[in-house]
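In this section we walk through a basic example: taking a raw amino acid sequence and producing a predicted 3D structure, encoded as discrete structure tokens. The instruction is simple. Fold the sequence below.
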Amino acid sequence: MGTLLARLLRRLGLLRSELLARTASRYPDAASVRDGELVHVVDGGIEKWACFRCPGGCGTLIPLSLNPKRRPRWSVTTDWLGRPTVTPSVNQTNACACHFHVSRGRIDWCEDGRPPRRPGRPVDERPTPGRRGDGDGRIA
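The resulting token sequence is shown next.
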């Protein structure tokens, strides 16, 4: 119910969230992961992967291991609206070189991790990291 409400609020422009989570029991193929979606892979009650598309514009599928016995590893929590929080930060080592945090479905860019602006790509007007909401009536 919460995820459906979040999708509706996001479409209406009342919810700022670049990512919403869905749960799957198998590792997704790249074509099945949509922009704005984090696939939380849980099999038999064991968290395995968090997969989503790079928010920097390159579109690369980012698979994050949630296995506590592997290094590096991440953790994912999801609020009642389906907005994921990923810890620690994600630091891409490909040509995109993105470095960001995911908090309540929002992408908070690190100073060193903003991808270069590409021709034809609109200027991003997200608030600066650490600033939640700007009085425009949206849910942060």
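Looking at the output, two observations stand out. Residues 102 and 140 are 13 Å apart (CA to CA). The first strand starts at residue 20 and ends at 24. In the next section we compare this with other chains.
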